[in-house]
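User: Teach me something about this protein's shape.
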Amino acid sequence: MDSIISSQLMPIELSIDQIYLDPNNPRFVHDEWMTILDERIDQGNVQREAQEKMIRFHDVEKLRINMEINGFLPIDQVIVREFKPDKYVVLEGNRRITAAKLIVELENKGVAINESVMKSIMTINCLLYTGTDNQAAWIFQGLRHITGIKPWSAYNKAKLMNQLLQEEGKNLTEVGKQFGLSAFGAGQWIRGYNAFRQAKDDSEYSRDVKESAYTYFQELFGRSNLPLRQWMEWNDSEYRFEDSLAFNEFLGWLYPKPNEDEIDEDLDPDDVNGDWRNRRILTNRGLRDVSYLIKNATPQFEEFRNGEDLTKSVASARLAEAQDEADSRRQPAKELLRSMEDLARELRNIPTLRFKNDDEMREQLLVNLGELQASISEIRYEFQLETSPA
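Assistant: First, the predicted structure itself:
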C-alpha cells in the first residue's frame, strides 16, 4: 500500500441491500482458486454460494442468534470497497453481514424480529476503503485474523505474506511488522509457502501434495532443520530446493507409494498416487528428528532412507550417542591407568647411583616419593571404605 491504511478508510452509511458478500473471501481460497471478477460479484448465484460457504464452514448461525437478540453491534466496523456504482463488497466483516442478511430473509418470510434489531441491521455504518491494493481483503482480514480471532488455514496466511513480499515489494521486516512477526518469523512462513508451491507445481508428487501438508514445509525453515535444508540444497535467492532428487525423496516420505510388487500389473507405476495417511514422518516436528540424523548419525539416516521406521532410527542413534559419551567419560580413567603404569616402570628403573651422588636431587626425589606415598595411602583408604561391609 502507498500510505498508511487508516488514511485510506472513510466512514460511510450503507443499507444492507447495498452490501455484498465477498466471493473471493480469503477464508474460501485454496491453491487452485479461480478469482471471481467484480462484474460477477452481485450475481445471485455468486452471492448464494458465498452465503452457503459462510453458513456451512464459519459458524454464522450462532452469530445470527446473538444478533437477533442484541442487534448489529458496531464494535468492529465492517470494511467495504465499491465494486460498482452504489454497490459495495465486504473486505472485513463477512460473518456479520451474512448473519444480518439471514435475519432480513427471516423477516421477509414473516418471522417476527424485534423492531430495534431490524433498525440496527437495515442501515450499517461501515468504513469505505479508498485505496487501490488488489489484496485489500487479505490485508484487512490478516490484520485481525492472522493471530487467530477466527483462524485461517496456515497456507492462506503464508500466501498472504508471500503476496505482500512479491507483489507489494515489501521486505521481510516490513511484512513481519504488519502482522506482529519478526523478520525471521515472516521468512519462515514465506519460504515454507514457496517450498510448498515447488512441491505442488514442480515435483514428482504434484498431484499428491495438498494444503494439509503446508505446515511441514513451514517447519522445514525452523532453526533446527538447517541440516535437512542443506541436504536438499535450499537456494535462498530463488526460494527453491536445487537438489530435485533429494527433494522428491523427501516428498516420498510424506506421500509414500506402494512397492512395485503391490501395484496392479495393469497400472503404470507413475500413475499410482502417494498416500499421506502412510507418511513416514508422522508430524511436522518429526522433521527435527530427520535433521538430527543427517547431522549426527549418518548410518541411522541411511537406515531411515532405506525404509527403517523413523522412531527406531532415532532411538538407535541416541543409543549409539550415549555409548560414545560413556566411552568418552571412561577415557580419562584409562589414560590415568596408562600413566600410572608408565610411572611404576620408571620407578623400577631409577638410576639410584646418580641420586646418591647428588644431595639436592636425592632430597627432591624423597619429597616426590613422599607425596606419591601419601596420595597412594589416601586412595587405598577411600577404596577400602567403599568395599568394606556396612
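Now, about its shape. The chain has 16 helices and seven strands. Residues 159-296 form one domain. If you'd like, I can walk through any region in more detail.
User: That's plenty for now, thanks!
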